[in-house]
Amino acid sequence: MSMVNITIDGKKLQVEKDMTILEAARQANIKIPTLCFLKDINEIGACRMCVVEIKGARALQAACVYPVAEGLEIYTQSPNVREARKVTLELILSNHDKKCLTCVRNRNCELQTLSEELNINELRFEGESTDMPLDNFSPSIVRDPNKCILCRRCVSVCRNVQTVSVISAAERGFKSVISCAFDKSLADVPCTMCGQCISVCPVGALKERDDTGRVWEALADPELHVVVQTAPAVRVAIGEEFGLPIGSRVTGKMVSALSRLGFAKVFDTDTAADLTIMEEGTELLNRIRNGGKLPVITSCSPGWIKFCEHNYPEFLDNLSSCKSPHEMFGAVLKTYYAEKTGIDPAKIFVVSIMPCTAKKFEAQRPELSAAGFADVDVVLTTRELAKMIKEAGIDFNSLEDGQFDDPMGEATGAGVIFGATGGVMEAALRTVAEIVSGKSFDLVEYAAVRGIEGIKEATIEIGGMKVRAAVANGLGNARKLLDSIKAGEAQYDFVEIMACPGGCVNGGGQPIQPSSVRSWTDLRAERAKAIYREDESLTIRKSHENPIVQEMYEKYFGEPGSHKAHKVLHTHYVRRENYPEMTNK
């Protein structure tokens, strides 16, 4: 590996020649502030917060994009550098909507943090305030242009990572704004509601729609039986909202907190994930054996489904007809559970705690109403649940470990791994392998479909039958995979696609980490490790061995793929126009 010798603040270093000054400084534990920078996503040197002085250079340079070279002498704290950073930050603040105390990102805002670190105790510049309308028409995402600092992180992740490209910079100079095409709302463009734009925003310009008020109202209604279900990815991330290390498993504390909030029952979405595998595995085998439409593509990720409806409608027949696990669970709660408990389904209020903002959009789909009511009434993100816990004054870290409630609280390791990319595929293979062979296997881990690579491929032999599988995470990778299938370059039997890079553990509703953490720590990998540790800790690790699922089939559905199962647990999807009734303004 080729190295170069440089000096930063008088410290002599030997670093790799393809590094930037920012990377070299970090390696030497020298902090350079950033604002627009996000490694591998937004490296454009736009905000100028990371400027440094280079001996011999005529002007200050942006450390995030300036490459190191032999003999470079760099100064990160010279008077010129310090003054330039302060002036830049004050100019950004001069027309920023500074309602920090009521901002969703208060105390987790990179602009706020920088202001403290650079000792900004007065503003020398009074800029003209922007006053633009809030875009709050989407069921998932709210845009506040008045808080936007034009860092373009959201633009980069939407265009370069997700390849959706529904937001971009418009106008020039002071009038510059990040907006949708034709000034439309996010609700009226082919946004997938994945929320990756929220995750990378350094301020409060993007946030999820806050539905906590609806849940508080339901909890206070004595006429309602309010139940809650939690996705697997929530338990390995919510601890971050309470200062715990990334990847902490806090399943028991999360259950206890939900009970303290007043939910009548705290259930585990993983139970429905096991149910999903029974239906989806049966669907896969039926299509392979009977010449059905292949590949079968998983339908668990609502962001991916919406992306498919807008961009690849020719693949709609390939989608599994299974509802996503939390919607399937909502349907079960308002049919099987309602009958079992004698509760009127109209009085059952189902709350889903999800790592995903797209689930909010999914919950309002008219197709998802098995009992004549919405399967799921409200979706809250991991962040929203944390807000409720804090609002209730619950000391999360001191809680005892609670247990999910019966009868819908028992899940297997297969249900847990839905939270990581490749998890749905692996869970299905664990069950399909034993159905096809008629044997029980001790080996339940399919390493070929694990990991955070954008696209993974594997051919797995199951009872003499070869299953050609592919896993894609992130919509940009989904696009590459689907294009290769369309072009005839690849053939598969089973495909898993998750909208978010890394899968649900990196969903748009998960705790937000600043660039200083996100750029150098792989959140996806750390949270996924916790998912797999939870899987390994469970006694039962195959969906078809879940006794609750077995009981549901025995007493209610009959068998996987039955008429009743299709009526309650399956759905359909529709082609969507990208810009309906498009008009130029």
UniProtKB/TrEMBL annotation:
Belongs to the complex I 75 kDa subunit family. Residues 80-119 form the 4Fe-4S His(Cys)3-ligated-type domain. One of its GO terms (molecular function) is 4 iron, 4 sulfur cluster binding. It is an enzyme of class 1 (oxidoreductase). It comes from Ruminiclostridium cellobioparum subsp. termitidis CT1112. Residues 139-169, 183-211 form the 4Fe-4S ferredoxin-type domain. This is Hydrogenase, Fe-only. Residues 2-80 form the 2Fe-2S ferredoxin-type domain. The keyword Repeat applies. It is found in: Membrane. NCBIfam families: FeFe_hydrog_A (TIGR02512), FeFe_hydrog_A6 (NF040763). Its EC number is 1.6.5.3. CDD domains: fer2. Its cofactor is [2Fe-2S] cluster; [4Fe-4S] cluster. It comes from the Bacteria.
